[in-house]
Amino acid sequence: MTLSQKPALPGDKIAIIEEFETGENTFDDGQSIRSLVVGTPEFDKTSRIARISGMRRPAVAKSGDVVTGSVAALMNNMFAINILYINGKPTHAGLECICQAKGAKKRILVRVGDIVTAKILSLLNGVIHATISEPELGVLFTQCIKCGAKVIAMSNNIKCIDCGYIEERKLSTRFGNSDFIKFNSN
Ligand SMILES: [Zn+2]
């Protein structure tokens, strides 16, 4: 197995247990060593320990802050947001936050690439935990997954104005009336 230096997300496989033992921010699932956090895998070949170096300590995001960004990854029970704005101010710190998405197997809350707004709940071991379960939080901007056209809100769904495709989302009450479309051209 090739040892990756790419950033790992929670649940990512970083090594196999025949080759390494679990270090900081990792767990083993009986076969593989997986990451518990967002961070960079590090491998000590002498002690054969795999660990994850947590993300840069986020000095600029704190509990209660409202962040806006794009959905970077979807996992079974959570998703990661690449933070672009903190309390309305642009940030280039490369911060990510993780939202729990309980019940998301049945319900589509967000898709990768959606622009969402979330509230920071806590910072634990360098991981920023956030939520979108308040009316003003959730998806601000998205597009039709089938054809890429503009969508309109229909209660808890979105509907494509072009092809008519309907899909679920956890929409923000501010969906459709903000200027977040500009993010899309970045
Ligand atoms: Zn469409």
Strand/helix succession: EEEEEEEEEEEEEEEE
**Total domain modules:** 2
CATH topology of the largest domain: OB fold (Dihydrolipoamide Acetyltransferase, E2P)
Helix content: under 10%
Structural class: mainly beta
CATH architecture descriptor text of the largest domain: Beta Barrel
Number of DSSP helical runs: 0
| Ligand species | zinc ion
How would you sum up this structure, described in words?
The protein is mainly beta. The chain has strands at residues 13-16, 21-22, 26-28, 32-35, 39-44, 49-54, 66-74, 78-86, 89-90, 96-100, 115-124, 127-131, 138-141, 151-154, 157-160, 166-168. It contains no helices and 16 strands. A five-stranded mixed beta barrel has the order 7-8-10-12-11. Strands 1-4-3 form a three-stranded antiparallel β-sheet, with no helix packed on it. A three-stranded mixed β-sheet has the order 2-6-5, with no helix packed on it. The chain is elongated, with a radius of gyration of 18 Å. The relative contact order is 0.13. Residues 181-186 have low confidence and may be disordered. Bound molecules: zinc ion (ZN). Zn(2+) binds at residues 144, 147, 160, 163. InterPro entries: Csl4, Exosome_Csl4_arc, NA-bd_OB-fold.
Descriptive labels:
five-stranded mixed β-barrel, OB fold (Dihydrolipoamide Acetyltransferase, E2P), zinc ion binding, zinc, mainly beta, elongated, metal-binding, 2 domains, binds zinc ion, 186 residues, exosome, 0% helix, three-stranded antiparallel β-sheet, single chain
